[in-house]
Amino acid sequence: MQPHRTDLRASAPTTAKILLGSEVVGCHMREDGAAGACLELMSAAGIPEHFVLTVGAEGEDRLARVTCRKQGENGARLWVQFLGPASLAA
Known about the structure:
Layout: E1 14-20, E2 23-31, E3 36-41, E4 50-55, E5 60-72, E6 75-85
Antiparallel strand pairs: 1-2, 1-4, 2-3, 3-6, 4-5, 5-6
């Protein structure tokens, strides 16, 4: 089931990073309501269901959960729900 989405073209993408231990995966994030976002990246392979997402230049860390994945010819999209600050996961 795909999540309810607003028009993704309406929000400008923000640079973000998916933190996977010692590996960092760069992506673009488009806000999708107050508690979620759509991440655009090259491939969703190896991205777990839960991860820490660093957002913007300030480096705000958020704990995220994947709610939907879509892989296409031009890359992947992950819809995520924010579960709170990453410090809660520690």
